[in-house]
Amino acid sequence: MNPAVSRTLRRVPRLVLTLLAVSFCTFLLTNLLPGDPALTILGENASDEQIEALRADLRLDDPILVRYVAWLGDALTGDLGTSYRTGQSVTDAIIERLPVTLELGIVSLALSLIVAIPLGVWSAYRAGGLVDRFLTTASFGLMAVPGFMLALFLIIVFAVRLGWLPSTGWVRFSEDPVGNIRSVILPAIALGANEIAVFMRVLRSDMLTTLNQDSITMARAKGLSAGRILTFHALRPSSLSLVTIIGVQIGAIIGGSVIIETMFALPGVGRLLIDSIAERDLVTVQGLALVIGVSVIVVNFITDSIYGFIDPRIRDGRNA
Amino acid sequence: MTSVPTDRTTAPATDDAMGVDGPLLDVTDLRTTFRTPVGDVVAVDGVSFTLRRGETLGIVGESGSGKSMLARSVLRLVEQRNATVTGRVVLDGHDLATLSNRELRRRRGRVAAMIFQDPMTALNGTMRIGQQITESLREHLPMGRGERRAAAIDLLRSVGIPDAERHLRSYPHELSGGMRQRAMIAIALACGPKLLIADEPTTALDVTMQRQVLDLLDTEQRDRSMSMMLITHDLGVVAGRADRIMVMYAGRVVEHAPADRLFAAPRHPYTDGLLRSVPRVSDEPGRELATIPGSPRVVLDGAVGCPFAPRCDRAQPDCLDANPPLTPVDGTSEPDDLHDTRSLHEHACWYPLGTERGERALQANRAAGTTAAGLRLTDMTGSADTATEPTVSDTVARSAP
Amino acid sequence: MAEMLDVAADQPVTSATADAPAEVIARRRRRWRVTTVLSVGWLVLTVFAALAADLLPLIDPNLVDAKNALQPPSADHWLGTDGLGRDQFSRIVHGAQVSVLVSVSAVAVGMLVGGMLGLLAGYVRGRVEGAILAVSDVVLAFPGLVLLLVLLAYIGRSLFAIAVIVGILSIPLYARVARANTLSVTEREFVRAATVLGADRSRIVFREILPNIILPLTAYGFVALGKVIVLEGSLAFLGLSVQPPDPTWGQMIADSKRHLSDTIWPAIGPSVAMFLTVLSLSLVGDRMRHRIDARAEAM
């Protein structure tokens, strides 16, 4: 079997354990709170009948483990419960909004990588030069600008003053592809700007190490062009940390999308979370917490597995 | 493996007869310095030499003597921001300094190729061996995909890698140490270079592998009538393989002679020390190998005196005041044709071996029990304690490997 | 928050000056000193503003003056006024209180508890370490902001709750930093020597290990302070921070959004204040880490 595949498989049990732990914590959210969960969920104004119905529905009189197993079973079959505020299935609500968040996240990740990789490579290639020093300073500045602040100034400049792009709202791709792209640009930039600085710095420091190695001198002695050396001989061995950081930053992107979706009034998962919290729609909040937690863990698992495919030495268990 | 020819002097002559005029490589006053916080470190200090077609030049010195930096400077591979390389390098009729980057690149790998000490670090660990060979071919030669693949297989076979087709798809870490070095040689030879610079090609290998790899280099060199710069810290490696040998110390050439002459009658005390530290078959059992006291130190620009003086058992007061220039040994005479250095024997020492002046200096120091530089002489073999010397900080040493 | 902080924790800072020529290094050191001084200066000013806000002769930050709403900067209102005519400068000074209070208490909680747990994990090893690491993995699996929002939804929001929850959620991060540093310290000669010589455990922990992990934790804490300030701002934007009318920088920036088509002045003051504070914190933290790295190399 391909060593990268078997390395991935070996890590599956741990993945499953973490997933179970996360789901249990999510489950506990509604159960560890003081007072009657039914009352917490329905709010003070609920009638006695409503509360009784919910208590039965939640099987609140069963032992906690029994309820967890039942809840987990439902969740695994795609049933995250029904919102008591809107009457909509939580699963449906999430699926309806997922494409928006996914598109936003992917576009912003892609944008930040497209900007960060060349800058990081150049910065390391000409380390200590003017461009490098400027970028190092700029990356500190960029990291100190919170997403919401950047979003605000992007709106001021590109939506309010110049009027080039919409400041709020979402257009579905299927309805109007151009409008869809226009509506995703500003939010994606606001969401990804911080990541540019993070990715650039990580890549720069790894590239610096790689560029000092004999393999680079060897590649130059072979008469290869700088472009080919940088991409084939320097970037690939230097991209391990970058991949890890991308995995780690997925969480930041999901967290950030909550704010950005709210700022730009995008109908995504993050917005759903905020709305549900504002309306104390705890069933939906719980479902969202589960979905987000599981996604982050799975994405991290995947990026960790990609490792083995990038560097054959790690794939074969050396340096692992 | 084919046997090593013991008489190498005939090989260059045949090449000259092929009608190619001028030497393959002509280096004049090559100088590489690094700016550091404590001053300019001189890694290569005014080195000049020529290399004829088909000839092997051995370059010998301890680590830190500047020999690797010399190799990199020749191909203009020194890229550190704080480095300055000056001097003339004429490779196959072209002054490298006047070439554009693009033209320079066209010569690297095509006209001159290089192999390194440790294939584990010099090969790209994330690229298959085959790809590392074919990328040079693609860069330099008008070949199709299939031709490149066939050429790569031939190359791997010629360097003695069994099952070449399969190993095209191997990654460097999947090969053994000796195979890796062979693969590196195959990569370097891919475009049929006229000059191969081998920087400590066997240091990372065990003894039996060393021999095999050196034999392989010999065979390839003869088959392709390449010139070779064979860089090593071990005189045993160049013995019987190099036509001429250049001994380097502190970035300078301290002795330069036809190989047989150098082994028979070394002039510079440093060469003598290196020779004494090589074990020979003819040694009586139990003979203690001599060592040169101390270790090479970094030389800063503007330093006066002979850099070897602190470690030399002949050092006299004038050794500390003036750096001896490279001068021809009497009798070998300066040739009229500057490029014909075949018989030239040069050394850079005020008190060389084999001269009355030199022997008197040694006797005087022994009688005094100390040299002018404060080195205490304890016995006849020359092993001695070094007086404590202020050493230059680590940063400097690191900038000038 | 958690994952943003994470990067800082996991990335050993490689010296940017490693390959730079001497003059550049020297120049950069000088430049660093200036920026460090400026950063520390700004931070001192911020803390002073937070402590002395109520004592300073400032306009009441909550004084509504509808006739003078959305004024540009003037002699009366140095940084202009907001949509209700409240003085921006006074609100920024008072807003520093929330930023300082929330960030310092959150970092204090996280650093104290996390530092102790990390030290325990790194020194005792075995099952204790396994348990601490397992729990921290689970907590870190959630995006910090999402977890914070969820918990706030259940627990209810107040300044106190925000500080405590953020502090608790960041415990695993400090624990990891502390554990990593404890591991490297216990491997060092002097600690091994003390262990072999039979020095008692508490002495080793408090006299040998603790001093060596406090500095890296503090450096990390500086960066974390900035992250918490941003986090409070994010919450304000989502309408989940402290209740109006008390000013916070995030709240002020969020408010300014409503008036964007009329004027951008209300956005500028608080944005600059927050930007400078976060930048200063990360510069000071980075400077400390460089110092620590240099010291570690020298050892």
Structure description:
- The complex is a heterotrimer of chains A (320), B (401) and C (299).
- Chain A has 320 residues and is mostly helical.
- Chain A has helices at residues 3-10, 12-31, 37-42, 48-57, 64-76, 90-125, 130-143, 147-161, 177-211, 214-221, 226-238, 240-263, 269-278, 282-310, 312-315.
- The longest helix of chain A has 36 residues, at 90-125.
- The model of chain A has no long low-confidence stretch (mean pLDDT 84).
- Chain B has 401 residues and is an alpha/beta fold.
- Chain B is 32% helix and 19% strand.
- Chain B has helices at residues 10-17, 67-74, 101-107, 119-122, 129-140, 145-158, 164-167, 177-189, 207-224, 235-238, 259-264, 269-276, 317-321, 356-368, 394-399; strands at 25-36, 39-51, 56-60, 83-91, 94-95, 112-115, 195-199, 227-232, 244-249, 252-258, 327-328, 346-347, 376-377, 384-385.
- In chain B, a hairpin with a 2-residue loop joins strand 9 (244-249) and strand 10.
- With 299 residues, chain C is mostly helical.
- Chain C has a single domain, classed as MetI-like fold (Orthogonal Bundle), CATH 1.10.3720.
- Chain C has ten helices and no strands.
- In chain C, helix 1 (2-10) crosses helix 8 (201-237).
- Chain C is elongated, with a radius of gyration of 22 Å.
- Chain C starts with a helix and ends with a helix.
- Mean pLDDT of chain C is 79; it is low at 1-28.
- At the A-C interface, helix 2, helix 7, helix 8, helix 9 and helix 12 of A face helix 1, helix 4, helix 5, helix 8 and helix 9 of C.
SSE layout:
The complex is a heterotrimer of chains A (320), B (401) and C (299).
Chain A lengths: L2 H8 L1 H20 L5 H6 L5 H10 L6 H13 L13 H36 L4 H14 L3 H15 L15 H35 L2 H8 L4 H13 L1 H24 L5 H10 L3 H29 L1 H4 L5
Chain B lengths: L9 H8 L7 E12 L2 E13 L4 E5 L6 H8 L8 E9 L2 E2 L5 H7 L4 E4 L3 H4 L6 H12 L4 H14 L5 H4 L9 H13 L5 E5 L7 H18 L2 E6 L2 H4 L5 E6 L2 E7 H6 L4 H8 L40 H5 L5 E2 L17 E2 L8 H13 L7 E2 L6 E2 L8 H6 L2
Parallel strand pairs in B: 3-8, 3-9, 6-7, 7-8
Antiparallel strand pairs in B: 1-2, 1-4, 4-5, 9-10, 10-12, 11-12, 13-14
Chain C lengths: L1 H9 L11 H31 L35 H37 L1 H16 L2 H12 L3 H28 L2 H8 L4 H37 L11 H8 L8 H34 L1
Helix pairs in contact in C: 1-6, 1-8, 2-3, 2-10, 3-4, 3-6, 3-8, 4-6, 5-6, 6-8, 7-8, 8-9, 8-10, 9-10
